[in-house]
Amino acid sequence: MIWTAVIVGGVGCYLLKLAGLSVPQEVLERPSARRVADLIPVALLAALIGVQVLATPGRSLEVDARLAGLAVATLALMLRAPFLVVVLLAAATAAALRAIGIG
Amino acid sequence: MEASRRRAIVRDGVAVSVATGVYGISFGAISVTSGLDVWQTCTLSLLMFTGASQYALAGVIGSGGAPLAGAAAALLLGSRNTLYGLRLAPLLGWRGWRRLVTAHLTIDESTAMSVTRETREEARLGFLTAGLGVFALWNLATVFGALVGDRLGDPRAWGLDAAVGAAFLALLWPRLSTATNRLTAVLAVAVALALVPLTPAGVPVLAAGAVALGMGLATRDATDPTEVPDPEDLP
Lengths: 103, 235
Known about the structure:
The complex is a heterodimer. Chain A is mainly alpha-helical. Chain A is built from four helices and no strands. Chain A has helices at residues 2-22, 31-54, 65-78, 83-99. The longest helix of chain A has 24 residues, at 31-54. The radius of gyration of chain A is 19 Å and the shape is extended. Chain B is mainly α. Chain B contains twelve helices and no strands. In chain B, helix 2 (24-33) packs across helix 3 (38-48), helix 2 packs parallel to helix 4 and helix 11 runs antiparallel to helix 12 (203-218). The longest helix of chain B has 29 residues, at 120-148. Chain B is globular, with a radius of gyration of 19 Å. Chain B starts with a helix and ends in a 17-residue tail after the last helix. The relative contact order of chain B is 0.14. Classes of the chains: A mainly alpha, B mainly alpha. At the A-B interface, helix 1, helix 2, helix 3 and helix 4 of A face helix 1, helix 3, helix 4, helix 5 and helix 6 of B.
């Protein structure tokens, strides 16, 4: 049964990706469709940040070292730090806080 | 494209590949401790190749759920890649076998690394660097994680979970230039967080897609000076 789930889930996820790429271009010629398509990455990235930083596997919200990492990342971005520096600073912040027993 | 611009895009792609790819270690370890064997775990990373869906499938099986329920959760989460594809198709402009390969590499990171670019050439470079980079590292890390398991220690101790959130923020940052986009981002976070305790994992992020839909349609009647009226709409 696990193999069935792995194959069905895997092939299904691939087909979902392909479906998005294969929708006729006319769908995006409507201005409203274009606006929605432009806003989709903004909305999903924002939601992914929220869930990644605050949600727990037990479906609750928890403030911990991840949020401190995000705060430092925000500061770094405001100071125009390069991408790699932003990511490493966030990781270092969370790791340091956990090393001293916080978060 | 200037050499410096090309280097910057590749560097960003490598950075997000490392931050995301290394997380494959934790997926490999979680998957084998959830009841999947090493081959099933590696097949998931090769075939499904979309992290959140893979975690969902392993999580459902690990908590005693039916394997097919796990597959359903994975598909629910994977449907956001359909939205990404919708956005990527005109941007990348690949057809035939290239589109089939593009589909497999369509994930959060490759999408984010391409939609923020200004030209098709830059978008393609960003997509391929992040897509192939994450694919290679994610699969290598999965094998490693599955074989060695949690003897490696907790990726959280290295702050890797915080690194993923920071990477998503850095990717979103350049998109926050307009008031509409900022409002969309704030509403999306609010909706997603409100749904976390109420819905299965994955749904909160999908619901954010509805925010994009609502915001896109709500601004439909706003005066747009660049928009030419349709002849049929004229009195």
